[in-house]
Amino acid sequence: MMAALHTMAQRSRALPLTDNLDLYFALLLRENHRAAVAMSALELNKGQDPALRAEAENLNHDHQQLILRLDSAIMSLRALPPSFPEHTMQSERFSRLLDAATSGLHPAAHRFIARLKSGSDSLHARSSPKEEDAGTGSVDRDFAALLITHHQNSITLARAELELGRDEHLQQIAYLVLQDQQREIDQVQAWLNQHPEKVK
Predict the structure, then answer these.
(1) Pick from 40, 187, 22: which is nearest to 93 by CA?
(2) C-alpha dist (Å) from residue 90 to 21, 22, 36, 96, 108
(3) pLDDT tens digit string along 154-189?
(4) Per-residue confidence (pLDDT) for residue 199, from 0 to 100
(5) Which of the two residues, 184 and 121, has the higher pLDDT score?
(6) Domain positions in the chain
(7) How far is CA 111 from CA 103, 105, 120, 188, in A?
(8) Which whole number is the average pLDDT over 133-153?
(9) Residues of the chain above pLDDT 90, percent
(10) Taking a C-beta distance cutoff of 8 angstroms, is the pair 78, 27 a contact?
(11) Is 143 in contact with 191 (CB distance < 8 Å)?
(12) What long-range pairs does 168-171 form, CB within 8 A, spacing at least 24?
């Protein structure tokens, strides 16, 4: 699970800047959704809980469909003539999008894993990066916990697009991300609340 998030962050940071902020958002969101597909595939392959597996199946399908929509939007945006020169005031907005896509993801995920391993009352639990990347020992709990931090970043990215973007189609996608991923966060958080026992 953590490997999917690391890969997402690395690929996001390696994306070249374009002269179109909407295109950059679409590229970042595609990496984000690829990570979600990888996480859901792992849950479907190794997870045991029926409710989480059903959530993973829906997520896998929905995110792959959205990736196709993003691919189409990316092709259309790349065909447009340049609208902004590179390295202008847009650079600050590009940075804000990249930060929305990646900043805080790993620390938040690591804190969540540390709390699950130490008990829900251990708000300041700490562990080494190697221990954090190893997860809780349960694919189901790792999927639920890390999906929350992953989706929180997706929501932050979508809000940035709604604030900064100009493409109507991508803003519609961003709005759907806000709705759908908050619902998915609520569902897996409810599962975690119903399964509070510490993993040995």
Answers:
(1) 22
(2) 8, 11, 28, 10, 28
(3) 998 898 889 888 899 999 999 999 999 999 999 999
(4) 43
(5) 184
(6) 2-77+91-194
(7) 14, 10, 11, 17
(8) 84
(9) 48
(10) no
(11) no
(12) 169/73, 170/22, 170/25, 170/26, 170/73
Q: How far is CA 74 from CA 21, 48, 66, 79, 99, in A?
A: 11, 37, 12, 9, 20
Label residue 189 exposed, middle or buried (CB < 10 Å: 0-12, 13-18, 19+): middle
Q: What is the C-alpha to C-alpha distance for residues 15 and 101, in angstroms, rounded to an integer?
A: 12
Cβ within 8 Å of residue 84, ≥6 positions away = 19, 20, 21, 90
State both tokens at 169.
């189609």
pLDDT (0 to 100) of residue 126: 47
What digits encode the pLDDT tens for the residues 19-37?
788 998 999 999 999 999 9
Answer yes or no: is pLDDT of 118 > 60: no
Residue predicted with more confidence, 66 or 5: 66
**Domain spanning 2-77+91-194: which superfamily?**
Ferritin, core subunit, four-helix bundle (1.20.1260.10)
For residues 37 and 63, give the distance between their C-alpha atoms in angstroms, rounded to a whole number.
Answer: 6
Q: How much is the pLDDT for 182?
A: 93
* CA-based nearest residue to 188, from 144, 128, 155: 144
C-alpha–C-alpha distance, residues 101 and 86, integer Å: 21
Asked whether 141 and 133 are in contact (CB, 8 A), the reply is: no
Q: Which two tokens stand for residue 1?
A: 């699970």
DSSP 5-43: HHHHHHHHHHSPP-S-HHHHHHHHHHHHHHHHHHHHHHH
